[in-house]
């Protein structure tokens, strides 16, 4: 899992570890589980990647990249506590790249930050996954953690969500500056519906707040 990425909203993917545990309604048809099974890997066991992959960003020196971290896991999963400090060091010594940390475990994020985090590393964007209104509780939790940029990933969006109050609207108030929306995908999957009015509401909220909106795909 390296330089090239099938994710439309980044330039590269970096998997310092892989394997996860489902903990959200959005996890029902997890693409990571599907992909790992295809490659003969055990999704239920969190495993550190080999050094070639673990240290890959140190070798990506030709151009600044937007890098999605842990596409087959969660950066803040408990099983990776022993390896995370080294991953932070890799991120810090590659300031030319922007690292996107997307999590469903935002309640663990603060305890997993490096000692010199301060107001956030300039090259780290912090994102949270929200699939329906039951998961909106994650949004204010992430905003309590300083970051260069906060973003929302509604992938897959399986229910209406209200996010406007958490969007950045200028001034000193922290808020989300980017919203990504996508329907469910995958071969052999009974995709759950994503209603156009849910997407339109999010788009209009982003438009009114003056922040970025990225629409990936319908289910």
List keywords for this structure.
globular; alpha/beta; 219 residues; two-stranded antiparallel sheet
Secondary structure class reads alpha/beta
Q: Percent of residues in beta strands?
A: 15-25%
- Write down how many β-strands occur, each being a DSSP E stretch of 2 or more residues: 9
- Which overall shape is indicated by the principal axes computed on the Cα atoms? globular
Cα end-to-end separation: 25 Å
- Alpha-carbon Rg, integer: 17 Å
Q: What is the domain tally? A: 1
How many strands, which pairing sense, and closed or not: the largest β-sheet?
7 strands, parallel
Helix content range = 10-25%
The residue-averaged pLDDT reads 92
Sketch the topology as an H/E string, one letter per element: EEHEHEHEEHEEHE
Strand arrangement within the widest β-sheet reads 1-4-5-6-7-8-9
Residue stretches low in confidence (pLDDT < 50, at least 5 long) are none
Total of helices: 5
Question: Overview of this structure, please?
Answer:
The protein has 219 residues and is of the alpha/beta class. The chain has one domain (12-215). It has helices at residues 31-38, 51-54, 81-92, 138-143, 196-209, and strands spanning 12-14, 17-18, 47-48, 66-69, 98-103, 124-129, 149-154, 178-181, 212-215. Strand 4 (66-69), helix 3 and strand 5 form a beta-alpha-beta unit.
